[in-house]
Amino acid sequence: MSLHGRDVISIRDLSRPEIEDLLASARRMIPYAEGKRAIHPLADKIVAMAFFEPSTRTRLSFESAVHRLGGHCITIADPLVSSLRKGESLSDTIHMLTSYSDAIVLRHPNEGSARLAARVSERPVINAGDGAGQHPTQTLLDLATMQEAFGTLSGLRVVLLGDLRYGRTVHSLAYALALFGAQLVLSSPAALRLPDEVRDQLEPMGVKLEEEDQLHRAVRDADVLYVTRIQKERFPDEAEYLKVAGSYRIDNGVLANAKPRLIVLHPLPRAGEIAPEVDATPHAAYFRQAFLAVPVRMALLEALLGSPKARKGE
Ligand code: NCD
To answer: In this structure, what are the phi and psi dihedrals at residue 21, rounded to the nearest 5 degrees?
Structure first.
């Protein structure tokens, strides 16, 4: 089934073959993402970036992807300067963006906001993070980084470390890894365990979820260590955050017994979870991961918008 004109709200909106096709086309996009070659399948297209939460990599890599494909962006990067500040509803904002653009990339603090936007919008909506919900395009680039490092996704042993409760990137990634038959090891402070709703989706897929709170043990047999930031902004109160702040940190000591080919990933920004000394080791793959955001998002945008009409259902 073609992705043309579709919404991407949850990673579950994509089948395994669709994800595989996107990863293959992302690999072909690398020289274009690096600016070594040029293509313009979005030449007549405008993509709206509606970001109502802080972002550096996600917004800028989407913008870079649109530019590299020859398209144009219109951007709300600061909610304080948009009409949301004046009390405009999200659905009114989306209605308007639908008439100004060919697709909308939305980041919003409320879980479910992207699904709501997709109902309102006649144009494709891409979820760039809805509260503690989902972040499907981050998952695509996480998978692209693992596939580049190992040549495959199946059978990888992946440790998901940190804030598994509020971290939307792991909610999307865990599902996708289960689709590809990876082994998942969950390692988090007790208060930040993976929510039951997410577990309930994984278990019927036949994935065995292991839990390992001892970092050294979790790291020992891992192929991928996926580190996350504690999502301070999602805690109901500061005191709860302070109980878990700084409770894990990856440094060269923790990695001493790791497999030589272990890669450390992080969606970034990091806030102390990975010591800078790790950057110089062959394990550090998080900056490559941040670069791969561009070819992956190019592949996705080309699939959604790359031919003359971009309206849903056409
Ligand atoms: C993540 C996010 O916004 O969910 N960042 C990103 O998109 N690269 C992770 C985070 O903010 O911790």
So the answer is: -60, -40
Domain 136-290 has CATH 3.40.50.1370: yes
Which residue puts its alpha carbon closest to atom 7 of ligand 1?
Answer: 58
* Summary mean pLDDT of the chain: 95
**pLDDT value of residue 307:** 66
Name the residues annotated as catalytic: 57-58, 86, 107, 135
The fold adopted by the segment(s) 11-134+293-311 is Rossmann fold (3.40.50)
How far apart CA 50 and CA 35 sit, in angstroms, is 25
In the chain, ranges of CATH 3.40.50.1370 domains: 11-134+293-311, 136-290
CA distance 160 to 233: 20
Cα separations (Å) of 175 from 93, 132, 162, 169? 31, 15, 17, 10
Residue 5 near ligand 1, beta carbon < 6 Å: no
The response to whether residue 135 sits with its C-beta less than 6 Å from ligand 1 reads: yes
Tell me the pLDDT tens digit for each residue of 58-111: 999 999 999 999 999 999 988 776 777 778 899 999 999 999 999 999 999 999
Question: Tokens 């530019």 — which residue?
Answer: 67
